[in-house]
Write a structure and sequence with these properties.
This protein is an alpha+beta fold and 130 residues long. It contains three helices and five strands. It has one domain: Thiol Ester Dehydrase, Chain A (Roll), CATH 3.10.129. 22% of the residues lie in helices and 35% in strands.
């Protein structure tokens, strides 16, 4: 699967008192990247919800390898790494000046209106490229 790249400039409000990016903001950046990944594949979270499908996060893992500080330009790289019957795993890399400073993943379960797991429809698989 190919990577989608999302550039971000770290805002002051995303840093802690020491000027470093607050650790929880990485999860927000991952979400921003997922939204852009979906757009790059012809759909949005809103369009999924309009179809009665929801994609909650059920697992997160992050490894911080280097620091990110206020006003730095970073790139969030995202790709769909794995799919199962009703779930999918996205992998992320956060780079700064071309160097990987963070990596991680999120697992998601596709749910229907009843809030129960549903198989990934063929139409969505096609859009996702799987």
């Amino acid at each position: 699967m190919e990577w989608v790249e999302v550039p971000i400039r770290v805002r002051y409000g995303e840093t802690d008192q020491m000027g470093h990016a607050y650790y929880a903001n990485y999860l927000y950046w991952f979400e921003v990247a997922r939204g852009e990944w979906c757009r790059a594949h012809g759909f949005t979270y809103k369009s999924l919800e309009d179809e009665g499908l929801f994609l909650p996060v059920v697992e997160v893992w992050v490894r911080y390898r280097g620091e990110i500080t206020y006003d730095e330009d970073i790139v969030i790289r995202i790709k769909l790494a794995e799919t199962k019957r009703a779930s999918m795993k996205f992998e992320y890399e956060v780079t700064k000046n071309g160097e990987k400073v963070t990596d991680g993943y999120t697992w998601h379960v596709l749910m229907g209106k009843e809030r129960k797991a549903v198989s990934i429809p063929d139409s969505l698989k096609q859009r996702m490229g799987v």
